[in-house]
Amino acid sequence: MKKQWIGFMIAGMLVAAVPTNVNAEDCYHNWSYSADYTKLDDTYHQAEYYCYYCNAKKTEKEKHTWLYEEILEDQYDANYHTVQYECMDCGAVKTEKQAHSWEDEDYDEYYTYYYENKKYHTYEQKCEECNAKRELRAPHRYFSFYDKIAKYATFNKKGILVYSCIDCDGTKKVYKKWKSGTDYSRNYDIKHGTVFNRQTSITVKLKRPSKGTVLQATIGTKKYKKKIKNNKKTVKLNIKPAEYGEKVKLALYYKGKKIGKDSCDYNDEVWYSNRVTEGMTQKQVRYTWGAPSSTSSSSYGFTYWNWDDGSMVSFRNGVVDYWFDAAN
Signal sequence span per UniProt (predicted)? Predict the structure, then answer.
């Protein structure tokens, strides 16, 4: 490092010792870069250089070195705006037309959309560099997650979905036929209570009762039908006593087409005729063991049923609290 520093010092002393009044003919010119520039035309300027040692002078013709200056915002039309450049050496100025840089469509959330008609909307784009604007036309963009149910479909009437354009206030109506399991269709599912042995009717609850529909119950291999004639939500269907283990299925039909299903499939086995369980109602016990031979009651809401074979059931507030089956 020390030797290198000494070399720099000697080189500096030698340069300083070179006389500045060297004869131009004998001088090995070192042209200065601090030249003077004069504009010649729109393409070239003249550069004047001086020798560092002898003050000799030379001129050279050079092309302008254009530097971006600014957009002339008051000079634009539908397709172009005017850009002004300045030469960084001589100060010459030139202008040229440049195509607009319209905003990228990926950033269309910055646009303002205007409803035009059922098919199209218009929106305004701006040039990113000047004040130019243009109006574009585009078809509406409808997506299902922007829909609204204006009218639910029923089994004999179409429903109406209103779709909104995600860009403007445009909407369109779509008419949909009734289809089971869709969000725009009325639900006609039905459910029933547990069916016990010896029971001669089923109580069915209709979610949306409709005149003209047919309720069909299938218990084992037997089928029962009843036409709905009013708007009552609870319907009784007469049946023959079921046997233990038979399945109970219910469905709702309109003109032979299934429009509703049983929503109690998980609990559709007929109760065993001799089985009483805690929580049963008095009606359910009567269906299971038959009518008692005698009954009595006491304070605190207790009721007692007795049968000739020694079986008994104790009810508290109307449901089974305790029972004894003499046959088992």
Answer: 1-24
